[in-house]
Amino acid sequence: MAEQTTPMISPCGAPNSGTGTVEPGAGGDGTVEGAGGGQNFMGTMGMMAVFILVFYFFILRPQRKRQKQHETLISGISRGDQVVTVGGFFGTVREVRDDTFLIEIAEGVRVRVLKSAIQTKRVTTPAPEEKKD
């Protein structure tokens, strides 16, 4: 009777040569070979470091810069300055308190807004003078 051989399946699921024998160097002596385990870990850690750097330089750093600029803008606003709120209202600062501004958005119409609700400070340019001949 002929001997029937079955293909051997490696631990990763790929079939071996099909002879039913263990190939040399494939760990047939009972040892387990770590094929690139340390390299895979270092590659993963390298990718994590790159991801963290990209996250810092493209998200965190610009956000902190904008926040610092806004704090500088808010601290520089004083009575009589023209401002624009986040809601789009134009007004003139009439009173400055700890965490709020009293702004006049129309003649006789004053509203109190949080300092964080100020988007920009308007810079008014004086009208050019006409030359007299």
CATH architecture of the domain at 78-124: Roll
Which regions contain 5 or more consecutive residues with pLDDT less than 50? none
CATH C-level class of the domain at 78-124 is: Mainly Beta
Give a short account of the largest sheet.
5 strands, antiparallel
Fraction of residues in H or I helices: 25-40%
Compute the separation of the termini in Å: 125 Å
Percent range for β-strand residues: 15-25%
Helix/sheet category: alpha+beta
What is the strand tally? 5
Oligomerization = single chain
Radius of gyration: 36 Å
CATH topology of the domain at 78-124: SH3 type barrels
In what order do the strands lie side by side in the largest sheet? 4-3-2-1-5
Shape: rod-shaped
Number of discrete helical segments: 1
- Return the string of H and E elements: HEEEEE
Mean pLDDT: 81
Description:
It is a single chain. The chain has one helix and five strands, in the order αβββββ. It is 29% helix and 22% strand. It has 133 residues and is α+β, with helices and mostly antiparallel strands. Among the domains are: 38-75; 78-124, SH3 type barrels, CATH 2.30.30. The protein has one helix at residues 37-75, and strands spanning 82-85, 90-96, 100-106, 109-114, 118-122. The mean pLDDT is 81. The chain has a five-stranded antiparallel sheet, with helices on one face. The longest helix is centred in the middle third of the chain and has 39 residues, at 37-75.
